[in-house]
Amino acid sequence: MNFIENETRDKLRGGYYTDPAIAAYLVRWVLEVRPRAVLEPSCGDGAFFRALKQTPEPTGLERLVACELDGEEAAKACQEAQALPGVRAEVHHADFLDWALGRMHEPPEFDAVVGNPPFIRYQYLSDTAQGLAARVITHFGLRFTRHTNAWVPFVIAALSRLKPGGRLAMVVPAELLHVLHADSARRYLLRTCSRILVLDPEELWFENTQQGVVLLMAEKRRADAPEGTLGAVAITRIRGRECLASTPARHVEGAEYVPGEELPGKWMLALLTARERAILGGLRGHEAVRPFSRIARVAVGIVTGANKFFLVPDSVVEEYGLGAYAWPMFGRSAHVEGIIYDARAHAENKRQGLPTNFLWFKDAPRDALPERVRAYIERGEAMRLHERFKCRIREPWYTVPSVFTAPVGMLKRCHDYPRLIHNAHGAYTTDTAYRIFPREPSAPRLVHAFVNSLTALCAELEGRHYGGGVLELVPSEINRLLVPLPPEGGEDLGDLDALCRANLPAEEVLAQRDSVLLGGIGLSPGEWGELQRAWGRLRHRRQRTGGGDEAEPGEE
């Protein structure tokens, strides 16, 4: 975890400023409707004002209202705004959310919204900022979570101030499409807008950060639109910034839009072609395909609060005489190359000096522990581990709760595709992995069925990823994964274990598995090929490796 004292001032205030080409492109699009009043909710030093100033033809703009929390930046923006000819400009040195909340019961007054809202993670938001975010989101009947990033309520509040038929053009994190805390923004956009275009750059557009961004371009529903209908979403992949010199209307009108009714949660489905969505939709009702929640139960791993203290190699066990308290464990991809964790795999990890021991002191009082064991606990206290939240709520702090094994494990994060691990050794897992309990199939059959393009594609659609491109799944997302269960085979895991250990390209592994699993439930090679190409495209998008480009909808 990154701590607040280690972060830069710009990161803490969400100050990633907008490239002039991006600002100019978004400004050109909103000016197409000749807005009389424009809102910029987080103007920084005035990047969008400079873009407005450089517009060659008359815009019809009469009024510009902006907010900026940083006083120095607000002063710079004010100078830029005052240089706009014929425009009545107001730059408020204020928190936009506070400003907007004071106007929530007034009619919308803006024809367009432009901006680059602050990207501030929830850990770095003050209690006041959290409170404002909660008030904005709940005002519209949306669900607030304390994991919400600052940009989410900014988008919602700005959109609420937009008149029917108006346009919103913003730079927002790419996590708009898939993280749970952005669900309120996605729902509000679908509820209030007719069309939503997301331009999805292949590259990272902000220097010195791994924050991926997208360009959000939304048209608010007109006043005469039918009540209760949802908007439509299109996602267009773009390469390089050269496309920003083109006419925005070309992107907006040429995109393939997916009805909001087909996007009940995340928007990742809009990255698929109509054919891919049709195949996937058909499999949801297939008699041999199950959602994961029907065939297994997911539990989080053991929460130690200090993994480096509780997970140790043999050398530490020997040094402190911890043998009576050391139990086998795995929890990282380095521990398991294949899909079986057995005595042989455990012995190899020990030979390599990996932390293969989980220290479980149970409820032993300190004075009953051997001297060297007490010395190890005191070593942890010297590092102030007992003051960490997850440790200090326990008594004694070194006694870890909820210790039990599961027949199957699953690492929380993966690079190419997720896999289940048959825990033949009965090892423990920490919270870097999940504990899986099969319901319907046996543990070996469940592990055998999990590696295929259908399940891998579902993981891309349901999971989340951040700057480094690693895929992460939480239990609710795992529960929605689709798993094919052919009627025959799946108990012998030796071949699959060898295949996963063979260091083959992920595409080749899945191709071999698809012929067995997806072919085994009646899919044609053409159908499972479509699923594999869709998975490959989304994986390359996540990893930003530039491959897997076949049949991508709306690609530039």
From TrEMBL:
EC number(s) reported in the record: 2.1.1.72
Gene3D superfamilies given in the database record: Vaccinia Virus protein VP39
Reaction equations catalysed: a 2'-deoxyadenosine in DNA + S-adenosyl-L-methionine = an N(6)-methyl-2'-deoxyadenosine in DNA + S-adenosyl-L-homocysteine + H(+)
Stretches assigned to coiled coil: none
Entry keyword set: Methyltransferase, S-adenosyl-L-methionine, Transferase
Residue ranges of domain Type II methyltransferase M.TaqI-like in the record: 88-194
InterPro entries given in the database record: DNA_methylase_N6_adenine_CS, M_Eco57I_C, MethylTrfase_TaqI-like_dom, N4_N6_ade-DNA_methylase, SAM-dependent_MTases_sf
Superkingdom in the source lineage: Bacteria
Residues annotated as domain Type II methyltransferase M.Eco57I C-terminal: 265-518
The keyword Lyase is annotated on this UniProt entry: no
UniProt enzyme class: transferase
The protein's name: site-specific DNA-methyltransferase (adenine-specific)
The organism of origin for this protein: Melittangium boletus DSM 14713
Lineage: Bacteria, Pseudomonadati, Myxococcota, Myxococcia, Myxococcales
